[in-house]
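Notes to self after the Tuesday call (sharing in case useful).
The group wants a holo model before anyone commits to mutagenesis around the pocket. I volunteered. Ligand is 2'-deoxycytidine-5'-monophosphate. Logging inputs and output together so the record is complete.
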Amino acid sequence: MISVAIDGPAGSGKSTISKIIAQKLGFVHLDTGALYRAIAYFIDKNNVDFNNENEVKKCLKFVDLKIEKSGAEQKILLGGKVLSSELRSLNITKIASRIASYRCVREYLLNFQRDFAEKQNVVMDGRDIGTVVLPNASVKIFITASPEVRAGRRLEQMSKSGEKPDYNEILDAIKKRDYEDTHRVIAPLKKADDAAVIDNSNMNLNQTVESVLSIIKERVESI
Ligand code: DC
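Result:
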C-alpha cells in the first residue's frame, strides 16, 4: 500500500491540501485531527471530566468510532451518527487539544490509524503521522506557514461565515496551540527527519498542491 503522511501546525491548510491530493491520486484521505475531535465530542456529550486522564481512559471503552468511505471522502461515525461541523466548535477544539496529550487516547487512535493505512492507499494528515503513526510512510511532507499568515487565513475563513473575529486573539490562539502541540511529551508535532518541508506562507492553494504532488511523484515511482 502507498501512504502519504502530511503533518503540520494548525492553519497550514494541510487537511484541505490532503483532501485534494487524495482526490487527484485516487487515494483515501484521513484527517486524523477529526478523530481526536470525535473523541472530544464523546467526552463532552457524556460529561466526562476531560482534565482527568483516568476518567478519559475509562470512557474510551465505550467509544464506538468508525470511518465510512464515500469516494475519496471520509465520514466519521460515532455510535453510528455521522459527525462533521459539530467537531469544529471552539469547545471541541479545546477539549481535543487537551486529550491529545493523553497516552491512552494516542494509543487508542494509533491502532485505528495504522489499520486504516494497511487496507488502502492513503493520504493521512495530522501532527505525528510521519514520526509515529506511519514511520515507514512512502512519502512524508511537513507543511507549515508563519503564525501571522495562518492567523490571517483563519480570520478570512471566519469573516466569510459571518463572524467578527479579532486578528490578535486568533494569532494568540494559534501560537498557544503551536506551543501545546510541539511541547507535549508524547508524539509532539515535529518534522520527521526524512520529510520534505513546504513553507506555504507565500504560496496559494494551487501552488501548494502542485508542490506536494511533485514531491510525491519524485518519491514514488509508480505514481
Ligand atoms: O488538526 P486539528 O486541529 O483538527 O486537530 C485537533 C487536535 O488534535 C489538535 O489539538 C492536535 C491534535 N492532533 C494530534 O495530536 N495528532 C494528530 N495526528 C492530529 C491531531
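Two things stood out.
The CA atoms of residues 66 and 77 lie 5 Å apart.
The chain is about 50% helix and 15% strand.
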